[in-house]
Amino acid sequence: MMFHSYQLLFLMILFLSILFQISSSSWFSIWMSMEMNLMTFIPFLSSSENQLYNEGSMKYFIIQAFGSVMLLIGWMISSFMIFSSFYFKSMSYVMLLLALFLKMGAAPFHFWFPSLVNNLSWFSLFMLMTWQKLSPLIMLMYINQWMILISLSSGVSALIGGIGGLNQISLRKIFAYSSIGHIGWLMMCMILSEIIFMFYISFYFFMMMLFCLIFYMNFISTLVQFFCYKSFFLEKIIIMISLFSLGGLPPLSGFFPKWMLLNELLLMKMWMLSLILLLSSLMNLYYYTRIGYSLMMFSSMIFNLFLFKPKFLNKVLIYFVLYLMLISMIYIPMGMWLM
């Protein structure tokens, strides 16, 4: 993806808005930083060449604006003395949580996320699945009184993320449902342990960056295109292992953040939520295996749909993937040490 000069400026402001939110001490300043984040992300969803991109940016803006209004109303109810009764306090916390669920695409407000991703570039999708989730997740630290509601949304998000991706052939939709499933895990990580959350979110960032880069460089959008995908055997093996790691298959590095979270849940006797998260992880592994199967078993066909595949970039990609996998292996001894 080629960046224009104004997009580089917006990208810098996008990163600074998260730092501003982390360092904020009031609800209003947090809300302001989230609005600044929204305004600077919209240009990455828009395109003068493709009107479908503009339609997606409009959908995203309307949904996020509605969530921001709910967030502001909830904050006002919790702040004014006239609404100091237990009923109004509870209502304000519920409204704040529902607004955060809507903004991050968690259940029961996940419906907008898969319908939006088909018209996005891989870079915009990467930012939407990772960086744009940080603001609502960080805010969950301040609203942990309603543990039952957060746990319910976490379990339902994980199930929807697992079930929704089973019959998809679009890679963007597969990773969109995967993102919804990972949001379920990340919400519980943020509530129970910030250390586990840091492990999980950094690993998820690395993996999403890896896959979006691979699909962007090779012009891949659907599982069918893997039938004509030609690459080095080492690259196929690395992609396959990385998919299994993202799904949490032991003993790969993606398994350890999930294992650490499940231990915390079992210590709190949250048996049902632990079972739901495990089942959803198995469903995620199933459609990750479909991607790997398409990559490994059908890549020997003689057809080649790609007009431009520079060898140098492929080599750089392999080394980059190996480097990411080497970094991710640090999670294994660190996870064992924390346990």
UniProtKB/TrEMBL annotation:
Domain of life where this protein originates: Eukaryota
Gene Ontology cellular-component terms listed: mitochondrial inner membrane
Pfam families xref list: Proton_antipo_M (PF00361)
GO molecular function per UniProt: NADH dehydrogenase (ubiquinone) activity; oxidoreductase activity
Entry EC no(s): 7.1.1.2
Cell location: Mitochondrion inner membrane
Location of the NADH:quinone oxidoreductase/Mrp antiporter transmembrane domain: 24-282
InterPro entries in the cross-refs: Complex_I_Subunit_2 (IPR050175), NADH_UbQ_OxRdtase_chain2 (IPR003917), ND/Mrp_TM (IPR001750)
Signal peptide (residue range): 1-25
Family as reported in the entry's similarity comment: Belongs to the complex I subunit 2 family.
The name this protein goes by in its record: NADH-ubiquinone oxidoreductase chain 2
Gene: nad2
